[in-house]
Amino acid sequence: MLLLSLTAFAALCLLRPTPMADLLVYRAEGRAVLDGTDLYGFRVTEWNLPATYPPFAAMLFVPAALLPLLPLKAAFATTNVLLLALLVHLSLRLAAPASGTRLATWPRGALVIGATALGLWLEPVFQTMLFGQINLALACLVLWDLTRPDGARGKGLAIGVAAGIKLTPAIFAVYLLLTGRVRAALWSFAGFAGTVLAGVAVLPGASLEFWTRRMLETRRVGRVWIVDNQSLQGLFARLLHTTDPGTVWRVAALVTAVAGLLLARHAVRAHGHEAWGVLCTALTAVLVSPISWSHHWVWCVPLLVLLAVEAGARPRPVLAVAALVLFSARSHWLVPHDGVLDLRLPWWLQAAGSPYPVLGLGLLLFAAWRLRGTPQGPPSGPAGASAGTGTPGTARVPGLPGPRQTSSPAASSDASTMR
Fold first, then answer.
1. Alpha-carbon distances of 189 from 6, 29, 184, 185, 204, rounded to whole Å
2. Coil, helix or strand for 383?
């Protein structure tokens, strides 16, 4: 199945141009580091794309500048397929199908291969492949770190490094702090600080320029109102037919950020449900970011895995199927969007032009409904460790209501349900 999917994908790439525009930007960043030229002054590709990541990321892209273009594209595509398989594996570890459910009885290798074959055709993953993006690598870094046991040595460090490459993963350090895992949060901050200091040491001028100017230049990244932008700002820009939704989206983003992070905290602290905590945080990140290109939504992979696990435990796959269809439909590319047509969408095409923020908000509301109530008993963190302490706690069943009951009578009496 995976071979067939890869063959179809390769054939499609041969039939249509695959410029991997973002990969060309990364390559130019690496070359700027090697040559000592202005990191934030160049423009490449027919779309005049600039460098937008911190200097530390440019340092990591140096090897890309040393390879010929065709081998580099092949290496990036191959690596992204492997990263997709790793993301599926980590997603299954996060969602942890409960013993006795349908998915738990299937071989893990078969699940990973099958899901990887299907995942290639999810629009965010497909776009990541076509653009030569690093979204899958960042998601794997974050999810690997979050699925490690609380108390594991250096837990949180990988999140800090991911934030040093591209700022948005920093929200997961806030998530660790809010869920009481202070030591892991401090490791995240330390990892991030290390990337900043490395950038200052190697590229002092570029570092000063980025952290004082470029970081705040949202318009430099791209036009916020085009359908490519599947954040709340993009949604409100198209909904209000304006290139600058201003206060409206800022208020909406602030409310969503607070509500999403509090919901993530509630999922872990009150219910011991790491999977929903992580995904509420991820949804919040892509919603409130000023620009979330559709390929930033690769968090659809762990989301769909979690929904599939829940559908397997409870025979109600409607939400899982609906999410799968939406992330495969590419409706935002089907609405009129050439030139300024993105700003002229009629009301009845607005949802089709902004499918991911609409779904993201809906999923946060669904999570709030699923996590309603305050169960008794101690919350558990990742891998069954108590949040913030790294000591053993009541084991949980991700994707199922409440913590799993143990053989201990006390634990049984404390076990409660989550809706």
1. 38, 25, 9, 6, 20
2. helix
Q: What DSSP designation does 226 have?
A: S
Helix (H, G, I), strand (E, B) or coil at 44: strand
CA dist., res. 226 & res. 354, Å (int): 10
Residue 92 and residue 94: Cα distance in Å, rounded? Answer: 5
DSSP-derived 3-state class of residue 346:
coil
The number of beta carbons lying within 10 Å of the beta carbon of residue 410 is 10
Distance CA 176, CA 392 (A): 18
- Nearest CA to 286 out of 154, 412, 167, 156 is that of 167
Residue recorded with tokens 């490449």: 44
Query: Tokens representing 144?
Result: 């690997």
| pLDDT tens per residue across span 99-135 | 666 677 778 888 899 999 999 999 999 999 999 999 9
Cβ neighbours, 10 Å, residue 334: 12
Beta bridge partners of residue 396, listed in sequence order: 403
The Cα–Cα gap between 49 and 234 comes to: 19
Measured over the CA atoms of residue 293, residue 297, residue 298 and residue 299, the dihedral's sign is positive
- Per DSSP, the three-state class of 416 is coil
DSSP assignment letter at 107: -
- Residue 63: Cβ within 10 Å count: 12
State residue 32's pLDDT score: 97
Phi and psi angles of residue 417, each rounded to the nearest 5 degrees, phi first: -105, 155
Q: What is the DSSP letter of 392?
A: B
Instruction: In whole angstroms, give the CA distance from residue 162 to residue 152.
Output: 18
